[in-house]
Amino acid sequence: MKAISYSRYGGPEVLEYGDVREPRLGPDQVLVKVRAAAVNPVDWKCREGYLDPMLEAAFPVVPGWDVSGVVERTGGAVPEWAPGDEVIGYVREDFLSRGTFAEYVAAPVRTLARKPPNLSFEEAAGLPLVGLTAYQALTRVLDVRRDETVLVSAAAGGVGSLAVQIARHLGARVIGTASERNHDFVRSLGGEPVTYGEGLVDRVRALVPMGVDAALDVIGGDSLKEFAQLLAPEGRITSISDPAVTEHGGQYWFVRPDPADLQRLSDLAAEGVISVHVSETFPLERAAEAHRLNQEGRTRGKIVVTVD
């Protein structure tokens, strides 16, 4: 089958388009014919070796954890899926090798849910990782409640844009940092945009003088420190990018596959509660360009790779 792969760590130039062996199908897996795969920052971080202490790479590595596609066949212990079913998945295993930037992926059943019928395959591919990250951070870690105020960084990005929508669905007021060019987009999601950069703390304080009830940091570093300053006395904070959040009394969160959570997100999308904005698509053979664009960190919504 055709796929994108890399045989060593490095920049986008190590990505190669060509033939790789079709994955073997285990008893608890589903072979998915890939229609689209979203690009996430973790993809290039894996490619450059930043996650090597956590995830062993079995080269050559096919990158990608997000997928939307159609079930081709199922393993012997999988009665819940059938050929022809349309699925989405956060196909993360405990090592790097068999990713979603390929014509087929063998996905463990614990990583899959039904594709929202109202989303295109491109939109659906952009939902799993960022949606699960936002949903789990807001509900499991921050326990966001109705009428609370939530602060979200990079509110126009992949995780941030879903976090704004999910927090609004939970009944919260949402303030999101974004560049001025993305303010209207954040408003369209239900958030109140504030420009990031120098003076952010004062701008947020002007909106919420007593501080925010919950804060979701997706950037880390100075952004995390500013968010910690903006908490109400009993406020909660989590970060998906900077373990130093624990120094501020918060919790670091790394998203995990969960079929029930993913199905909940699919249902919310089907109900029109949340949507996925796809900023640009690339064919599989141009995945290196998609990686480069994602690595610049200025994308509104999602970048998606399509597979014919």
TrEMBL record:
Domain of life, per UniProt, equals: Bacteria
Molecular function as annotated in GO? oxidoreductase activity; zinc ion binding
Q: Which PROSITE patterns match?
A: QOR_ZETA_CRYSTAL
Q: Name one Pfam family in it.
A: ADH_zinc_N_2
InterPro entries in the cross-refs: ADH-like_N, Chloroplast_QOR, ER, GroES-like_sf, NAD(P)-bd_dom_sf, Quin_OxRdtase/zeta-crystal_CS
Q: Where is the Enoyl reductase (ER) domain?
A: 10-305
What is the name of this protein?
Oxidoreductase
Name its species.
Answer: Streptomyces poonensis
Lineage, opening ranks:
Bacteria, Bacillati, Actinomycetota, Actinomycetes, Kitasatosporales
